[in-house]
């Protein structure tokens, strides 16, 4: 369950800015000119709580905290206001080294990692944009981007069936520019956007009012225009998305702390130990039940932000000219307001499909096989095998007497013909796919892997970490990961 969390109406004083910038656009009463008032309050009273409960039953709710609390606060249905996706641009961040998904990220960017048998992680935010009516998208790439760039070109270019109308999908690769500062690569999320800030001021950016910042490697569904419209109606300058979190994963995220009225009072980036405990909050103020709040006492940032365009540009250029990251530097100084919505993720939503590269593959061919609680993607060949609680990617070949359990097989980029397979076997070599009488469990098999006959992969010794790349695999967190394009010889036991 995800929560929308909006940073409050940021009011910055001229004292926060460089002296030479303190005049002009930042004069008192103009853009970002009001002084920040620390004693912000949320919409108080039983009427507000009753309205929140009603909206939660409808599927979403919001709690509004503003720096200047009016004498009367009204609650307006978002659908009553006009949605204008033409004035929104989405910026998808291509991600860094992706060390937590290594070795799947050894040769690809994290957003290019295959998921669900037929998709890539980048397809999730891209499809959310398409289904939300957003047709202006920039993707910032830097690390291991060849595979990602190829997938984007195949999936979202003109003629692929996805209509962007007068919009665009443009890949912005990290590049060097004139000047000393221009010699640096992207130093973080904020720095990546800062290096291309001029795009929001050229001819394409004239009608842009809001900038949506997204991660290219997250798995969720969201109607971004609901998110943007909520941001606009609130009058907030920055809005962020969050989710309630339990103890097991909280220290992996930036956390926000609120008081019993819903006001954000601190932000901590990936706290641990006592610092983590200090970030516990009563999340019932966000609409969770008492039981839910006890299980999930933390509020974690999803790394999804929407900024008013002018606010974003001024924050990046003048207020925080050296800040490299949104989550650890810019957002902690800006969080004041909350919106709540519990979206759920599923690939199976006919009204909001997940788009990807059009491959025109045939249906999978299954011969005398047993498949239990599994996904088998198109273009695969399964012969006399047992697939249990596993995901089988496109163009997979699984031969007789193979048993896969708790396994993710990413599939292949191409087919080998029957003649090629026969030639490989006659030479004692291994074709792409899984050979006869092989047993595999708790494993991730990357693309184009060749696994021979009579192989056993189960990590029965319980090894947690191992680098056996010379033999074609790693063990990460107790899970065997077969490398892309690798060969596991006949009879090997892992």
From TrEMBL:
Asked if the record carries the keyword Nucleotidyltransferase, the reply is yes
Annotated ranges, domain Nucleotidyl transferase: 90-335
Pathway in which the depicted protein is active:
Glycan biosynthesis; starch biosynthesis
Reactions performed catalytically:
alpha-D-glucose 1-phosphate + ATP + H(+) = ADP-alpha-D-glucose + diphosphate
- Which keywords does this chain's UniProt record carry? Allosteric enzyme, ATP-binding, Nucleotide-binding, Nucleotidyltransferase, Starch biosynthesis, Transferase
Q: What is its EC number?
A: 2.7.7.27
Q: Specify the protein name.
A: glucose-1-phosphate adenylyltransferase
Q: Which organism is it from?
A: Colocasia esculenta (Wild taro)
């Amino acid at each position: 369950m995800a929560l929308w969390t909006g940073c409050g109406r940021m009011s910055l004083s001229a004292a926060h800015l460089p002296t030479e910038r303190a005049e002009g656009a930042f004069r008192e009463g103009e853009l970002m000119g009001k002084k920040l008032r620390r004693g912000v309050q949320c919409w108080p009273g039983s009427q507000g709580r009753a309205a929140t409960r009603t909206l939660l039953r409808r599927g979403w709710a919001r709690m509004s905290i503003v720096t200047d609390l009016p004498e009367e606060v009204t609650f307006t249905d978002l659908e009553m206001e006009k949605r204008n996706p033409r004035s929104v641009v989405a910026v998808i961040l291509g991600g860094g080294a992706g060390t937590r998904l290594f070795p799947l990220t050894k040769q690809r960017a994290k957003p290019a990692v295959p998921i669900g048998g037929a998709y890539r992680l980048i397809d999730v935010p891209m499809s959310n944009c398409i289904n939300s009516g957003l047709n202006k998208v920039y993707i910032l790439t830097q690390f291991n981007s060849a595979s990602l760039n190829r997938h984007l070109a195949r999936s979202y270019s003109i003629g692929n069936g996805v209509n962007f109308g007068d919009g665009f999908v443009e890949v912005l690769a990290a590049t060097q520019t004139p000047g000393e500062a221009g010699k640096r690569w992207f130093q973080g999320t904020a720095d990546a956007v800062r290096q291309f800030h001029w795009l929001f001021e050229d001819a394409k950016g004239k009608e842009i009012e809001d900038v949506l910042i997204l991660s290219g490697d997250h798995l969720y569904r969201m109607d971004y225009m609901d998110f943007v419209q909520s941001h606009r109606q609130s009058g907030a300058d920055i809005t962020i998305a969050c989710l309630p979190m339990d103890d097991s994963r909280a220290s992996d995220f930036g956390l926000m702390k609120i008081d019993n009225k819903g006001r954000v009072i601190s932000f901590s980036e990936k706290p641990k130990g006592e610092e983590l405990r200090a970030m516990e909050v009563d999340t019932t103020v966000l609409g969770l039940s008492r039981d839910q709040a006890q299980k999930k006492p933390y509020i974690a940032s999803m790394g999804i932000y929407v900024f008013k365009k002018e606010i974003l540009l001024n924050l990046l250029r003048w207020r925080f000219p050296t800040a490299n990251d949104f989550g650890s530097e810019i957002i902690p100084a800006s969080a004041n307001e909350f919106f709540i919505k519990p979206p759920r993720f599923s690939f199976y939503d006919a009204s909001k499909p997940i788009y990807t590269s059009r491959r025109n593959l045939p249906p999978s061919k299954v011969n005398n096989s047993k498949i239990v609680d599994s996904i088998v993607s198109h273009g695969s060949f399964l012969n006399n095998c047992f697939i249990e609680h596993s995901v089988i990617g496109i163009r997979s070949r699984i031969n007789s007497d193979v048993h896969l359990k708790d396994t993710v097989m990413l599939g292949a980029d191409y087919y080998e013909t029957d003649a090629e397979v026969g030639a490989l076997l006659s030479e004692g070599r291994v074709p792409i796919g899984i050979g006869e009488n092989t047993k595999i469990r708790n494993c991730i098999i990357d693309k184009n892997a060749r696994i021979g006959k009579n192989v056993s992969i189960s990590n029965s010794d319980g090894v947690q970490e191992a680098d056996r790349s010379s033999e074609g695999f790693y063990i990460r967190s107790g899970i065997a990961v077969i490398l892309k394009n690798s060969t596991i010889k006949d009879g090997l036991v892992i």
